[in-house]
Design brief:
Strand content: 25-35%
Structural class: alpha+beta
Number of helices: 10
Distance between the termini: 49 Å
Shape: elongated
Order of helices and strands: HEHEHEEHEEEHHEHEHEEEHEEEEHE
Length: about 325
């Protein structure tokens, strides 16, 4: 009981602290800009530096520009580099892919977000539109090889098979376009974005070549500071990571904390714990994984209903972290 009382007191203190922070922002007379996906941008988007993984022309750069119009995009080679640059204040925001409608979750980013002190401040559903790019002055029949990221090649498998093109996997979609342009390679095509063609002087020979047209990637915008809890009419999502006690019905009980309060869950993802991933349990002490659950809810951390749900969840959780509470991307296909 004493532990629960201390937890409730800490939660109240956290809420009160957040409320003071919100009042401080209002008192300083700052105006929340809506030119971006998150309401923490108090400066013009052109002053914002946003890191992404890949080279210019990558779909991640397109998502960064969709999230923060007119921002300065900063390419990084690896996902780890994007997190590190944001934490080191080299950039203001990071925009990273977390799941794709065809390929599923990008597990590396789900793992990395827990090892870095960044917060989710927005989301972007970005439609992937693959194009067939090559040096100008050729015919489609002249193109015998196609280079791109393995996932992009797989998403265009039917199209490329019909053209009898040999598929060659490389690290990046836009990187393939850049390499073809720099080498002056004829007879070779890249599967990449229209923006990559514009940047590297290639011709778009065909567009929308993916086999499934509903190809959408969900990107999350990350910041060093979370969005202060504030009441708003804008629909919000809250993302959490939680591990539970090993007992029958543990996940059912955890989700009941939200369903009993009419809070809608939009995603659940389980990953083996990065620390102590294998334990022994049961009568014969057999090995089993211990899991961490990533869950998204349609709720705002400023809502008392959501705060009560998390307090309830904390009673059965062995670990709980709020990854962010941020405006939902309500765009439609």
């Amino acid at each position: 009981r004493a532990t629960r009382a201390r937890g409730r007191a800490a939660s109240r203190a956290s809420v009160q602290s957040t409320s003071r922070a919100v009042r401080g922002v209002v008192a300083r007379g700052r105006v929340v800009a809506r030119a971006s996906v998150d309401p923490t941008v108090f400066v013009a988007s052109s002053d914002l530096r946003v890191a992404y993984q890949g080279v210019p022309g990558a779909y991640s750069e397109g998502a960064a520009l969709a999230a923060y119009e007119n921002c300065e995009t900063v390419p990084k080679e690896q996902f780890d580099d994007v997190y590190a640059a944001t934490e080191a204040q080299e950039v203001d925001r990071a925009v990273l892919p977390f799941e794709n409608s065809l390929g599923g979750s990008i597990h590396r980013n789900y793992d990395l977000i827990l090892t870095h002190k960044l917060h989710v401040v927005g989301e972007v559903y970005y439609r992937v539109n693959h194009c067939l790019l090559a040096l100008p002055g050729q015919r489609v029949a002249d193109l015998t090889r196609a280079q791109s990221h393995p996932q992009a090649l797989a998403q265009c498998e039917g199209y490329l098979t019909n053209l009898k093109m040999v598929r060659e996997a490389v690290d990046d979609t836009a990187g393939a376009a850049k390499a073809i342009a720099e080498a002056g390679a004829k007879g070779v095509a890249a599967v990449a974005s229209r923006r990559a063609a514009e940047l590297y002087g290639l011709e778009v020979y065909d567009e929308g070549i993916q086999d499934d047209k509903s190809n959408v990637t969900r990107f999350l915008a990350l910041s060093r500071e979370p969005i202060p809890a504030m009441q708003t009419d804008v629909p919000y999502k809250t993302s959490i990571a939680v591990s539970l006690k090993e007992e029958p019905g543990a996940l059912f009980k955890a989700l009941a904390c939200f369903s009993l309060r009419d809070i809608n869950m939009t995603k659940i993802e389980s990953r083996p714990m990065r620390t102590n991933p294998v334990t022994s349990a049961g009568a014969r002490q057999s090995m089993q994984f211990t899991y961490l659950f990533y869950i998204d809810f349609e709720a705002n951390m400023a809502d008392e209903n959501m705060q009560n749900a998390l307090r309830h969840l904390q009673e059965s959780a062995t670990f709980l972290r709020v990854l962010g509470s941020y405006p939902r991307d309500c765009s439609q296909l």
